């Protein structure tokens, strides 16, 4: 039927699987590249939030009070952090914002008071500025789990070494009395 030598027929038969393997390998590499790009983009967005927060805190450390630009930077960082970080970072930024507000209130109160009340407001402003400056010690610990670029790839195949999770069994003794 076919006048081609046998070795040519074998090569023809092997050509399709070889091409399929090559296409599969290229698709896998493109998927890895896209994932790496996604990780890098996420890192850059998170780093921008951290840098805005750090810039706002540095204004307080430099001038002893928060400028409108510093407050705007912190608010922008809080808004950007909404979907980029976990609850721990969002809660920390909220507390930092509250400290900024208290610092601003204490700074405003200093202008209109005298005597002991002024002294008390100056002490309050110093305390809030010190609390804000703790960002340099606390901030890196809170942000650092999100700033790693070593995210694992989750491919279509499960890791065979991963232990299966124990299923939660429901026992009649654990159900509330009104559900029995």
Measured between the Cα atoms of the first and last residue, the distance is 77 Å
Query: What is the element string, with H for helices and E for strands?
Result: HHHHH
* Count of separate DSSP helical elements: 5
Structural class: mainly alpha
| Arithmetic mean pLDDT | 82
Q: Give the uncertain stretches in residue-range form.
A: 163-180
Number of E-state strands: 0
What is the element layout, followed by pairings?
Blueprint lengths: L5 H58 L4 H14 L5 H25 L3 H19 L1 H9 L37
Helix pairs in contact: 1-2, 1-4, 2-3, 3-4, 3-5
Quick rundown:
The protein is an all-alpha fold and 180 residues long. The protein is built from five helices and no strands.
Structural notes for this entry:
The protein has five helices and no strands. The radius of gyration is 30 Å and the shape is rod-shaped. It is an all-alpha fold and 180 residues long. The longest helix is centred in the first third of the chain and has 58 residues, at 6-63. The model is unreliable at 163-180 (pLDDT under 50). The termini are far apart.
Describe this protein with a few key phrases:
disordered C terminus, 69% helix, rod-shaped, 180 residues, mainly alpha
């Amino acid at each position: 039927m076919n006048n081609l030598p046998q070795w040519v027929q074998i090569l023809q038969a092997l050509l399709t699987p070889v091409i399929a393997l090559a296409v599969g390998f290229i698709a896998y590499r493109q998927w890895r590249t896209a994932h790496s790009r996604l990780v890098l983009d996420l890192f850059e967005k998170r780093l921008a939030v951290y840098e805005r927060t750090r810039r706002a805190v540095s204004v307080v450390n430099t001038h002893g009070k928060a400028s409108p630009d510093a407050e705007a930077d912190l608010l922008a960082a809080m808004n950007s952090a909404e979907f980029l970080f976990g609850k721990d970072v969002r809660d920390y930024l909220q507390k930092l914002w509250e400290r900024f507000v208290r610092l601003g209130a204490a700074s405003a109160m200093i202008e209109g008071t005298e005597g002991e009340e002024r002294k008390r407001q100056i002490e309050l402003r110093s305390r809030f500025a010190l609390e804000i400056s703790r960002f340099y010690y606390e901030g890196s610990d809170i942000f650092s789990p999100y700033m790693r670029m070593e995210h694992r790839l989750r491919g279509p195949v499960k890791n065979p070494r991963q232990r299966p999770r124990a299923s939660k069994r429901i026992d009649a003794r654990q159900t509330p009395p009104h559900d029995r």
